[in-house]
Amino acid sequence: MGESIISIKELSKSFGDHEVLRKIDIDIDQGEIICIVGSSGSGKSTFLRCINKLEHQTSGRILYHGKEIRDVQREINEYRAKVGMVFQSFNLFNNMTVLQNCMICTRKVLHISKEEAFDRAITHLKEVGMAPFIHAKPSQLSGGQKQRVAIARSLCMNPEVLLFDEPTSALDPEMVGEVLNVMKNLATTGLTMIIVTHEMAFARDVSTRTIFMDRGYVAEDAPPSELFTRPKNPRTREFLSRYLAG
Amino acid sequence: MRYGLLATADPQTSIEWMIYLTKKYYRMFLDGTKLTLYIAVLGTLIGFVLGYVIGIIQDAKTGQGDNLLKKGCVRILKIIAAAYVEVFRDTPMIVQAMIIYYGIRQLGVDMMPVFAGILVTVLNTGAYMAETVRGGIGSIDIGQREGAWAMGMSPMKTMLYIVLPQAFKNIIPEMANTFLTNLKMTSVLNVIAVQELFMAAKTVGGNYYKYFESYLVIAVIYFVLCFLFNKLFNFLEKRLKGKTDYALAVEYMDNQ
After folding, report:
1. Which chain B residues are Cβ-neighbours of A105 within 8 angstroms?
2. Looking at CA atoms only, how far is residue B71 from chain A in angstroms?
3. Would you say the ipTM is above 0.90?
């Protein structure tokens, strides 16, 4: 047995007759920065949502530190507290300020004291450069600011793994940079990250391992230096040439 | 007493009669108004709580991994909730009042008409509010819940801290509406001998055979009450909207 944090064993997911994920086997080790790329509809987001249990797999298993996560709400909650997620559409709580957004889950899930929750919130909001906005409501922020708050909010839980579901896809081009910079900084802290993205340059520069997904399969899984320069799978080559040309 | 029955200063016009009746029976009108408000406020508030509970039950979902006991319980609760909402939305309140009042009396329980009146109002409000709450919950983007779930918050806490506060804000106008409806619907409770405002008018009108004037008096009272409450709710709604600006926390500006 290796030291994998998360092991995915033969994970499949179908929506009705439509097979979205087909027998995916992946081990995720401590400190890895994994970027998942692929065309729309290849199952990247569904895969990520399965890892967080927002989607129930049709078959297959997810092991967390060697222990299977069953479909029991309490086990799922404990697991999710350790495996955070950042969404394309931010999903900040609209009824709360930035500060409350960053404190509610640490208070109500981890049950830490108000003072500690506040300290954690400020620390992580500073990290993403959003501390001055603690009194703002999500509706008063720009997309890039919202996403940075969402990242800080996830960090407050002290997660072992952070999942990013196309974190910059809903942003205006000039805001993509600020979010990617935050993520680049995070990558240097040793946090394990799994990132579904269309930002090829980011994947090439930041990831330690890049996965190309195609029609529900893991078509290629290699270090970015290999995947981006010498792709083995013809589908990868085709996909990359389309991307790099465009 | 200034006006005797055969006194020369007997009221002639309808207006005079209204003033005359109001002066003579102000105590009855006042007590009727108080009781109407009492039943409407209490019935609506408890009805809201009931509506929230039923609405949440109707929205509850079970996961694939839940055990059979939990699935069974949720299912039974849902059936009961759905039946309750259906029955109370599809029958008139006046009929419900009769059935509940006389039904419980037949069981040998001596129930005060006021209590029965409040019970009917609660059950009626609960059924309508359940639908409103369900709609309110449905209007909140699923992403709000996923954001909380993804950090390990339980579905119940997510409902309590994230979804309901937002749904509540959205359905305030509908809640105000329900209260005003209840305020007026208490008038049907006269059929089970609740001494509310309608009953007062009926009694007063009967004394002099001046029904038109008597009912006109309570129409004015209903109107004024509803008008004032409407203004109050509008004011509260504006207050709840909150500030549109925010202050920068300058103490954390240094690392920008």
Report:
1. 148, 151-153
2. 13
3. yes
